Amino acid sequence: xxxxxxxxxxxxxxxxxxxxxxxxxxxxxxxxxxxxxxxxxxxxxxxxxxxxxxxxxxxxxxxxxxxxxxxxxxxxxxxxxxxxxxxxxxxxxxxxxxxxxxxxxxxxxxxxxxxxxxxxxxxxxxxxxxxxxxxxxxxxxxxxxxxxxxxxxxxxxxxxxxxxxxxxxxxxxxxxxxxxxxxxxxxxxxxxxxxxxxxxxxxxxxx
Length: 207
Fold this sequence. Notes:
This protein is of the alpha/beta class. The chain has helices at 22-33, 50-64, 121-130, 147-158, 177-206, and strands spanning 5-12, 39-46, 68-74, 81-84, 86-88, 114-116, 137-140, 163-168. The chain is 38% helix and 21% strand.
């Protein structure tokens, strides 16, 4: 049996003005770079489609039982690689690629308004910025009430907070695909090291 930690990283398909979605390009770069010998990395492209997300995420969590799922999306407003601390349940009014949006305008009918990641994004951000990889990382608490936020909230709900969301700028504004891949690699590795610390703390408490 493999003792490798399983990590899923997803990017989105093209939508709107994003004929090339830098999130999926960055995830493919990360797949080339890998996350080291101890990690089994799975990557998936996610449709910009509320109903597809509803079907896809439960199957990913159930089948692979990952330690961490990191979703990556593009933001036309972003100029840094942005770590999202939380996902929101309500306010989904914008139509997806199939001209659909949920009638309830929310992810989970009885879910709380907001779910935080178990990861301290400020700490991840500081560590990556201190490592001086040539890409600036920042933190946000508003993933935008579209498919990014919807996917994040759903994943946080299914994974009991063991999920993360990273917004990346469009390609060349200012970073190349290689830059974004390296930034994702650094971010996910820091997230994994924090989860490892938390596990060690929990083990200590139960001994």
